[in-house]
Design goal:
With about 180 residues, this protein is α/β, with parallel strands linked by helices. Helix content is about 50%, strand content about 15%. Helix 1 runs parallel beside helix 2 (about 45-55) and helix 6 crosses helix 7.
Length: about 180
């Protein structure tokens, strides 16, 4: 099984929180591999190197994969491989990775950052946690790692919600609702 965290590798995106949670949880769940997909800019290299040191200290180099930036087709393939997605941003705008992961059918644990509370039905299509809290992140991820069938069912509900509320057709209809009365 795979658990992922996608986006630029930096503190604002909470990549360190994901690594901390994985360092705690992966030793107890040998069937899981963690993947971090995202760009590491030169100014974020010290942050990324610190993450690699934490991963090495936990002896999890083979189970926490940092891919770096990938072409969109490869990112899509990674989404399709995920069982669980962790949206760990400390602060965020809309956060497309959240919707992308839900559209791919991944169970979701999301920090209450940006539009996460609009996209996620807490306990139904995902689990919401406070931003910046690695303990809460790990506590929310563990039941889904323990019960993959429940994670899969949550992912299916999340995908249905995205198709209903966030598809291009749904977005166009909402925009139309705004403009129709004005015209």
């Amino acid at each position: 099984y795979a658990i992922g965290c996608f986006g630029r590798v930096r503190a604002q995106k909470g990549t360190d929180l994901f690594v901390d949670a994985m360092c705690r949880l992966l030793p107890r769940y040998p069937d899981f591999t963690a993947v971090i997909v995202g760009q590491v800019t030169p100014e974020q290299m010290p942050f990324a190197n610190d993450l690699k040191k934490r991963i090495e200290a936990a002896n999890l180099q083979s189970r926490i994969v940092i891919t770096g930036e990938l072409p969109i087709e490869a990112v899509q393939r990674w989404y399709q491989r995920l069982t669980i997605y962790a949206f760990t941003s400390r602060n965020e705008g809309f956060g497309l990775t959240l919707i992308e992961a839900m559209a791919a059918g991944s169970a979701l644990v999301a920090a209450r950052a940006g539009a996460a509370e609009l996209a996620v039905e807490d306990g139904v299509t995902g689990v919401l946690v406070p931003p910046g809290d690695a303990d809460a992140l790990a506590a929310a991820l563990e039941p889904l790692m323990r019960d993959v069938a429940a994670a899969t069912a949550m992912g299916e509900r999340g995908r249905a919600r995205v198709l209903e509320k966030f598809s291009l057709d749904a977005e166009a209809a909402r925009i139309g609702e705004v403009y129709r009365p004005l015209l």
